[in-house]
Amino acid sequence: MSSPAARRELNRWRLAITAAFGLGGITISAWGPRLPAIKADLDVGTATIGLLLAGTTVGGILGLLVSTPVLHWLESRRAALGSLLLIAAAMTVMGLALIVRSVPLVAAAFVITGTGIGILDVLINVEGSAVERAAGRTLMPSMHAAWSIGAAVGSGIGAACAALDITPAAQLIGEAAIVAVAAFAVAAGIPRGERAPAEQVPQPRGARLRQWLRGWLNWQLLLIGLVMLGVELGEGSANSWLTLAVRNNHGQTAAVAALFFTAFAVSEGLTRIFAGPVVDRLGRVWTIRLTTALGVIGITAFILAGNEWVVLFGVVLWAVGVSMGFPLGMSAAAESGPDPAARISVVASIGYFAGLAGPPIIGALAQSAGLLNALWLIAALFGAAFAAAGSLATRTAVTEPAYTSGPDSPGRPGSSGTPPIPDGRAAG
Predict the structure, then answer these.
(1) Half-sphere exposure of residue 354, counting CA atoms within 13 Å on the CB side?
(2) Distance (Å, rounded) from C-alpha 307 to C-alpha 319?
(3) Would the N or C end of the chain have less CB density within 10 A of its end CB?
(4) pTM over 0.85
């Protein structure tokens, strides 16, 4: 039985990482509601706005690629602080660039912001997996729900600022200040040291790079990536095409179509919040199989149904289908072998690629086959995720090693030899 002090430290650690997930969601949604005003301030066309937004994705992929050496170099606490401060600085530059109406400076700020978010994404998933293992129960879905909630909060802040005639520049600079202050509070709650097995021999940078590259030849990681590819394409396509399909193909008004998307977002968030006990009981593999099977039913109902209530039912199941792949895939990747940051970077890169390439692919298919028919691709990828779900099982059942710590660090929660959680189930 762990001591009260260890439980308090674990709760503080969990709260810090959950807050970091929330901050990530807030930052990624900061500019979305302000795009019309940003477009007007910069006096550019829609194509230019699209290129600016693509800079965030490019930066995010760059952040994923450099996250592993950054984490090894700075260790967890300083890496969290550094990535959040990088995001805050880039958002400040973005605001100042809007004031002087410099498109190149805005573009650079988008790329740097995306880089910071990519680094933060890997870091908080590594930390979240460590918290989960120390606690002995599934926590990653609820942490990812904090990202979804943060995104909703960020969108609400943007909408409120637009309603109050607060300029995008002032909003971004103000949010950057809040993120910078919050960064120190988040970092204070993260135990010092890198989350790596104590007996693992430190490797030179070249060996770590080769290990990361070998991750792209690891079949388990690639199959986990396939699960994440399926669910992330489903989520990205909903973000881009669900409202349009409800409006144009199911004959609903624009307001009702927006409510259907709200139902999707709420259903995904609620599934993540309450899924932990289900995962602990069923395990990661059967949870993914259950949710992706429901996703296939949902997308089929959405495509074929003529009744708006059946379409809404399909939207809810579609959201359930995409809800668990990313958090459970991150947990499985982190536990699949040494150097969890490198492993998470591999599978997260596949997920990011799906988020980037998926919506345009659906759009291209819609040009020739129609939008609803194009959505059958999502059903097919849900099926692929179902088939690859076995990759999320924990392959070994060795005693969990203690975690290394910095010279001034107290003992790490969960470092007393707690066995790993087989297939996502709670110990005992």
Answers:
(1) 27
(2) 19
(3) N
(4) no
